[in-house]
Amino acid sequence: MSRRGRFVAGGAVIAAALAYLIYSGVTQSAVYFVTPAELQAAPVAGKVYRLGGMVAPGTLRWEPTTLALSFTLTDGKASVPVRHHGTPPDLFGEKRGAVVEGRWTAEGYFSATQILAKHSEEYKAPHDGEPAGYKGMMKTLSTDGK
After folding, report:
1. C-beta of residue 80 within 8 angstroms of C-beta of residue 54
2. Rounded to whole angstroms, how far apart are CA atoms 102 and 115?
3. Cβ partners under 8 Å of residue 74, min gap 6
4. Contact, 104 vs 44, CB < 8 A?
5. Cα Rg for the chain, rounded, in angstroms?
6. In a 10 Å sphere around its CB, with 0-12 CB exposed, 13-18 middle and 19+ buried, how is residue 21 labelled?
7. pLDDT classification of 79: cutoffs 50, 70, 90
8. What is the DSSP string of the chain?
9. Which of 3, 88, 92, 140 is the most exposed place for a label (fewest CB within 10 A)?
């Protein structure tokens, strides 16, 4: 084989190795967004997911001394129990949207490493002291949405 042929063959081997490293890095770091119904349909223990849904009323439990947080996310079709260790975000609460990142466990619950609380994109400032505007603002800031 000529010198040029060896150079081309070496370049092809290096290009193939780089392509494989890029492909494997992307597939291993990919985090799939799923709903509770999608996760319940085909859960894979140990796989990293982003799970989105509403925090079901009456399911939020937080122990400040141990930082144990548990709740249930629902999409109206299915519910998934979630456990997390840490302080919940400020906007996090029952009847509110949340996205959690973590893994499905073989024990049948979602172990969250991160919680992202969703909030309304609407901000309505009170106008000229009108009680309706103030009540509307307080409604968006309240924990139960009432």
Report:
1. no
2. 9
3. 36, 53, 54, 56, 80
4. yes
5. 23
6. exposed
7. very high
8. --HHHHHHHHHHHHHHHHHHHHHHHHHHH--EEE-HHHHHHS--TT-EEEEEEEEPTT--EEETTTTEEEEEEE-SS-EEEEEEESPPPTT--TTSEEEEEEEE-TTSSEEEEEEEE---S---PPPTT-HHHHHHHHHHHSSS--
9. 3
Buried b (16+ CB within 10 A) or exposed e, 103-119: ebeeeeebebeebebee
| Cβ(20)–Cβ(38) below 8 Å | no
- Tens of pLDDT along 17-37? 888 877 776 655 566 788 899
Q: Where are the domains of the chain?
A: 1-30, 31-117
Joined tokens for residue 14: 């290096």
Encoded tokens for 42: 């085909």
pLDDT above 60: residue 44: yes
CATH class of 31-117: mainly beta
Higher pLDDT, 56 or 121: 56
- Copy the structure tokens of residue 26: 């992307």
Tokens describing residue 100: 């959690």
